[in-house]
Write a structure and sequence with these properties.
With 463 residues, the chain is of the alpha/beta class. The longest helix has 18 residues.
Length: 463
C-alpha cells in the first residue's frame, strides 16, 4: 500500500510555502504563482535520510553559498592537506597501518580544538579511557606538542563506547564542536543484525555519522583500518560517502610519516603533509626534501635525485637502483615506491632504445624514505639510476633528473619544472636534466640541460 501523500502549495517565483491554495503570494506579491506540490510522508526517525527536516527542490542559482570559517586543527601539516583547516559539517576518514600514528595525530588535534573551539568528544572503541589518557599525557603536555597548550583541555571528553546510537545520544547531550570515532570497524548499530566490522555495520554506522555531521554542522573524524595490501578496509561506498579520505604512510622502522589526501571535496588532493614520530607525538616536518635527502653532496653508483611537485611545494627524493648478475633462473625485478609495471616498461625502453641488455641481471629499485611518487616525472631518475648501477659510474655533477619516459624513448614534459629547478638551486645541485620542452628555463645557480630522448639524457648524465 502506498503511503499517504501530503499536499503543500508553493509560490513558484519566491519558493515560499502555504498550507492552502491562494491566488496571490503574500511574500513577493505575484498573482497566480501558487502551485500544488505533493510531499511523500517520511518518518522523522528514518536513519536513511540525510536530513531530518523536510526538504524540497530549490533553484540552484538561488542557493546561497555557505562559506563557513574553517577550524584550525593546531597541526599545520594536517591543515595543509585538508585545504586550510577543518570544514564544519565535514566527514573525514583517516586510515593507515597500525602504529603509524593516526591516533596520536588526532589526539593532538583534538586537544587544540578543545582549547580553542569548544567541547570535543573522543569516542574510542579500541582503547580504554586509561590508554587514551596515557597518550594524551605524552603528546599534550605543552612543550613540543602540536597544540602548544598547557596540558589536556577541560573540554576534551573521552567516551569508550562501540554502540553508534549511544555515541550520538551523548553528542545530543554534550553538543560537541568536534567528534572523533576511533575506529569505525569497532562500531555497531542496533538497526543492523550483524557483528561489528562487517560491511553492513560499517555502512550503517558511516551513514548515521554522515547524517549527524550534515544536520548539526559538526566535523567528524573517522579512523579506519587498512588491509594487508594497504587499501582501506570495508566497503568502497564509505569513500564515496565521506568528504575527505586521508592516508598515513611511512616505513615501520623509520620516523618519517607522510599524510596524503586521496579525496577532498574542500581542497586539492595534491598536497601532502610530513611528520616525524617522536616522544612528544607527531612533529611537523617543514623541509621534506631535507629529511628525504640524508647526504645531498654524495655521488654514488645507482643513486639519482628526482623531484615531484606536491600541491604547493616541490619534494625531492633519492632513487636508488642495484643491478647484479642473476644467479639462476629468471632475473628478478623488485621495486619499492615505484610501480613494478612501470619499472618493467622503463627496463624495456632501456634495452630497446639505449642498447642496455638486462635480461640476465637482477634489478632492484627503491625510493628512499618511504616516498611513493605517483607522478611519472620520476621515470628518468629510475632509468638513470639503473644505468649508473649497470655501468658502475656516477655523474661528475650533482644532478637532479625528472621527466616521463615514453615507449618511443622520448622524454615528455612535466609540470612545475621551473619551481623544481629553483628549489634544486637552493638545495645546492648544479645540474637539472629535463625534457627539452621544459629546458627553456633561466634559473640562477643551476645548469638546465634539455634532452629529447633517453639516449640524450644518458649522455648528459655522464657529463
Amino acid at each position: 500500500m502506498a503511503k499517504k501523500k501530503d499536499t503543500i502549495y508553493i509560490c513558484k517565483d519566491c519558493g515560499n510555502e502555504y498550507p492552502a491554495w491562494q491566488g496571490r503570494c503574500n511574500y513577493c506579491g505575484a498573482w497566480n504563482t501558487i502551485v500544488e506540490q505533493k510531499v511523500q510522508a517520511v518518518p522523522a526517525e528514518d536513519s536513511r535520510r540525510r536530513v531530518t527536516s523536510g526538504a524540497r527542490p530549490l533553484r540552484l542559482r538561488e542557493v546561497g553559498a555557505h562559506n563557513s570559517d574553517r577550524m584550525r586543527s593546531g597541526v599545520g601539516e594536517l591543515d595543509r592537506v585538508l585545504g586550510g583547516g577543518i570544514v564544519p559539517g565535514s566527514l573525514i576518514l583517516i586510515s593507515g597501518e597500525p602504529g603509524i600514528g593516526k591516533s596520536t595525530l588526532i589526539i593532538q588535534s583534538a586537544n587544540y580544538v578543545a582549547h580553542n573551539y569548544g567541547t570535543v568528544l573522543y569516542a574510542s572503541g579500541e582503547e580504554s579511557e586509561e590508554q587514551v589518557k596515557l597518550r594524551a599525557d605524552r603528546v599534550c603536555r605543552g612543550a613540543g606538542g602540536a597544540a602548544e597548550q598547557d596540558g589536556i583541555a577541560e573540554t576534551l571528553l573521552i567516551f569508550p563506547e562501540t554502540n553508534i546510537e549511544s555515541i550520538l545520544d551523548a553528542c545530543d547531550n554534550v553538543k560537541p564542536a568536534f567528534l572523533i570515532v576511533d575506529s569505525i570497524q569497532t562500531m555497531y548499530s542496533t538497526e543492523v543484525d550483524s557483528i561489528a566490522g562487517s560491511i553492513s555495520q560499517i555502512r550503517a554506522c558511516s551513514n548515521l555519522l554522515m547524517t549527524y555531521a550534515k544536520t548539526n554542522n559538526v566535523p567528524v573524524f573517522i579512523v579506519a583500518h587498512v588491509t594487508k595490501s594497504g587499501d582501506l578496509a570495508g566497503p568502497k561506498t564509505i569513500e564515496h560517502m565521506v568528504d575527505c579520505v586521508l592516508n598515513f604512510v611511512g616505513e615501520r622502522d623509520g620516523d618519517l610519516r607522510i599524510l596524503r589526501s586521496f579525496k577532498n571535496r574542500f581542497g586539492t588532493t595534491e598536497e601532502i603533509g610530513a611528520f616525524r614520530m617522536g616522544p612528544d607525538g607527531m612533529t611537523e616536518v617543514r623541509d621534506i626534501s631535507g629529511s628525504l635527502l640524508e647526504n645531498p653532496d654524495a655521488r654514488e653508483e645507482g643513486s639519482v635525485v628526482s623531484a615531484i611537485y606536491e600541491g604547493s611545494r616541490p619534494v625531492f627524493f633519492e632513487v636508488q637502483a642495484l643491478v647484479a648478475p642473476a644467479n639462476v633462473g629468471f632475473a628478478r625485478r623488485t621495486s619499492v615506491g615505484i610501480d613494478n609495471n612501470r619499472l618493467n616498461m622503463i627496463l624495456a625502453v632501456l634495452e630497446k632504445k639505449a642498447g642496455i641488455s638486462l635480461l640476465n641481471h637482477d634489478v632492484y629499485v627503491n625510493v628512499v624514505g618511504g616516498m611513493r611518487p605517483d607522478s611519472p616525472a620520476a621515470d628518468l631518475a629510475v632509468a638513470l639510476a639503473i644505468f649508473s648501477s649497470y655501468r658502475e659510474r656516477t655523474s661528475p655533477h650533482k644532478v637532479v633528473a625528472l621527466g616521463e619516459v615514453g615507449l618511443t624513448g622520448n622524454l615528455r614534459a612535466v609540470r612545475n619544472a621551473d619551481k623544481i629547478a629553483a628549489e634544486a638551486a637552493r638545495l645546492g645541485y648544479d645540474t637539472v636534466i629535463l625534457p627539452t620542452k621544459n629546458a627553456a628555463l633561466r634559473v640562477s645557480g643551476v645548469r638546465v640541460v634539455g634532452a629529447d630522448n633517453l639516449t640524450d639524457a644518458l649522455k648528459a648524465f655522464c657529463g
